[in-house]
Amino acid sequence: MSVLMRNKGANKNILFIKGAPDYLLKASKKVLNKEGELVDFTAASRSAFDNKIKEYAKSGLRTLAICVKYETGILADYNGPKHAAHATLEDSANYANLETDPILIGVVAVRDPPRPEVKSAIQRCKEAGISVIMITGDIKETAESIARDIGIIKAGDEKNRSLTGFDFEKLTEAK
User: Fold this and answer.
1) Cβ atoms within 10 Å, residue 98
2) Is-contact 122 129, C-beta < 8 A?
3) CA 64 distance to own-chain centroid
4) Within a domain: residue 175?
5) What is the CB-side half-sphere exposure of residue 108 using CA atoms within 13 A?
6) Kind of pairing, strands 30-32 and 103-110?
7) Which of 110, 133, 162 is the last residue of a domain?
8) Distance CA 34, CA 31 (A)
9) Is the CB of residue 48 less than 8 Å from the CB of residue 40?
10) Per-residue pLDDT tens for 135-161?
11) CA triplet 153, 157, 159: central angle to 5 degrees?
């Protein structure tokens, strides 16, 4: 998801982007460091972010990457529906092109616990012979942690019971 905001000091728009860390970390070539300086997003810093995200995820935290884009191209002076770029914004197929080359600001992690009654509902389903599956947009480690917490899978079962979307797409009907 992105938000276009007017930077009054520079008299042009900037784009704030939040989304899946794996996607945005891959797309980012620059990062704002702790001092607020724009620096190259090196393999070492990318690895440090990946490790921290996995650490958060294994604890059941949901993660989002936060980015900014200062050079917004046709949106630099966008000011509403009468602007020439408005048609571009009306078609969501164009969003990926507008969000290219983001600058990573950081990653946030939040705990979004399941409702208290979920675990017992899953147990009752299992007792009734119902197979429970969970489909989520979370990264694999977060999904596995939550699935263990609510009783969908047991610790150690993840290898046989947890798939990413990419893994799922590779399955054949025979599996």
Assistant:
1) 18
2) no
3) 5
4) no
5) 10
6) parallel
7) 110
8) 10
9) no
10) 887 888 888 889 999 999 988 877 777
11) 120
Kindly state the tokens that stand for 166.
């990419």
This prediction has a pTM of 0.76
Map tokens 């046989």 to a residue: 160
Task: Give the DSSP letter string of 133-159.
Answer: ----SS-HHHHHHHHHHTTSS-TT-HH
The token duo for 18 is: 């939040």
Q: Which domain holds residue 104?
A: 2-110
Burial grade of 22 (CB within 10 A; 0-12, 13-18, 19 or more): middle
* 96 pLDDT higher than 90: no
129 and 98 both lie in a single domain: no
pLDDT value of residue 175: 54
CB atoms within 10 A of CB 135: 8
